[in-house]
Amino acid sequence: MVKEGDKAPDFELLDTDLKKKKLSDFNGNAVVLSFFPGAFTSVCTKEMCTFRDSMANFNKVNAKVLGISVDSPFSLKEFKAKNNLNFDLLSDSNREVSKMYGAFYDNFLNLNLKASKRSVFVLDKNGKVVYEWISDDAGKEPDYKKIQEVVSNLN
After folding, report:
1. Residue 49: active-site member
2. Where are the alpha helices (DSSP H) in the chain?
3. Domain residue limits at 81
4. What is the count of structural domains for the chain?
5. Is residue 125 in some structural domain?
6. What CATH number is given to the structural domain containing 126?
7. Catalytic residue among 33, 44, 66, 85
8. Signed CA dihedral, 95, 9, 36, 25: sign only
9. Residue 89 · residue 69 · CB < 8 Å
10. What would the pLDDT profile of 20-77 be if each residue is shown by its tens digit?
């Protein structure tokens, strides 16, 4: 489980174009890792669209946003296109990264579904976790203002 102050463990996941992306590919930039339970669900759509609408602020400070869920890269590609998302979505279909970060439901909504927990990790340009938020309530959105504040303070 990853905590504030830890060096974020590297990982490699497929993006929506079936290209492998490593966390280390983003070294030198602040990174916002946003784990979400499922594409095309109401709260997840609202969350990803909020990040989309805030990209100008992230771009000002050279911060990258990465959305991560256990959905397939094919589902994520459609989700990204439908919502005009302007950042990478990564498929954790084997669920390893969500588990590594402590952001995983074994039994989502008591339906025996496996899903990423709604969580946000902000990493500084050296890959150190400077902000961590994990919710056991999938209906609760992160504090977007706090995330913006943390990212803005990194430069």
Report:
1. no
2. 42-53, 55-60, 73-82, 96-100, 144-152
3. 30-152
4. 1
5. yes
6. 3.40.30.10
7. 44
8. negative
9. yes
10. 999 999 999 999 999 999 899 889 999 999 999 999 999 998 899 999 999 999 999 9
